[in-house]
Amino acid sequence: MKLAFILIIGGIVSVVVASVLTSRVPRKQNQKNLIKKGEKDQPRELPAEISGTLFRTLDDNPKNDREEEAEYNDNYWFTVESLEREVSANLHLSYANTGNKTDDHDFDVLSFSRGEEEYHIHGYCHKKKKRITLSSFGISNVIDLGTGEKIVDLTQYLELRYQETDSHLQDSLFDEHGWAIYMLLYLASTSGSVVKKEREVIGHFIKSLPKFSELDADWVDAELKALYRPGKMEIRKWVKEAIALGKDITIIKTALTELEALQKPENKEFWAFKNYIKKQLDLAAN
To answer: 29 or 232, which is more confident?
Structure first.
């Protein structure tokens, strides 16, 4: 009887722990919109080419543990964003791994991730007959198989191709205004959930931003439903970061007022966070 009781209690504890751990892990697609801090919670010094990607995860360990990709994993150690920016290109290239072994590949580029020094290039290798990740550090002698053009600067070439894709505008929204979207999302979530009317307010704000009016409304709503919900202390740190970077916090004023009209008086955190934003702006102005 005593043993059975212990087993039952142990099972309950295991379920509770598993539930807590699961609830703390954001959905994979939401990781792209966070920024990871270094030791002692100090912001990283980001290079110019990725300094605008506020609230995007920077992965300190780009290596992939899957055995089938081990030989061609990126062993050139540098930090990259977790977002894979979708692009399409069919290339022939030479790749030198960190053991100085060079192989030629026909490589279908599917996406890339910007890094502090170079890029991760993700795609399908016809030689290995599987998807692999290469470092732009090790790539040379690149030829566009579609045009025969010799590519001198691969990262610039990929960026130009990326600008022609539909996902470029969607990614740019979070590159440029992720801080604002997350502030509004947090304000809406202080009541416990983000309801349709609140998503409509945030969606209207997004569509009012210069160059983002053409974004599909259904895509915007789906993104807002799926986005990671920042915590109480986390969002306050993001407010300070946005102000320090010179972001114009006043652009959320109208949307904030519209969200405020939807809140119940007992939702104290909404007004506490609203006052926190005002206080930080006042401090920055002095």
So the answer is: 232
Query: What is the C-alpha separation between 275 and 76, in angstroms, rounded?
Result: 45
Structure tokens at 66: 């899957």
Phi, psi values for residue 262, rounded to 5°: -95, -5
- Inform me whether the pLDDT recorded for 66 exceeds 50: no
Q: Are residues 140 and 104 in the same domain?
A: yes
> How confident is the model over 119-138, as pLDDT tens digits?
999 999 999 999 999 989 88
| The token pair that represents 266 in the structure block | 């007992």
Q: Are 194 and 185 in contact (CB under 8 A)?
A: yes
Q: Which amino acid is at 190?
A: T
What are 37-44's contacts with CB under 8 Å, separation 24+?
41/237, 43/241, 44/79
Count of structural domains within the chain = 2
136 and 120 both lie in a single domain: yes
Q: Please tell me the number of Cα atoms within 13 Å of 193 on its side-chain side.
A: 4
Which range, 7-21, 39-53, 229-243, is most confident?
Answer: 229-243
Q: Is residue 245 part of a domain?
A: yes
Give this prediction's pTM. 0.64
Q: Give the residue from 257, 253, 262, 254 showing the smallest Cα distance to 281.
A: 253
Does residue 171 share a domain with residue 106?
no
The answer for residues whose C-beta is within 8 angstroms of residue 133's C-beta and 6 or more apart is 62, 64, 69, 72, 73, 74, 120, 121, 122
Residues facing 111 on adjacent strands: 86, 122
Helix/strand/coil for 137: helix
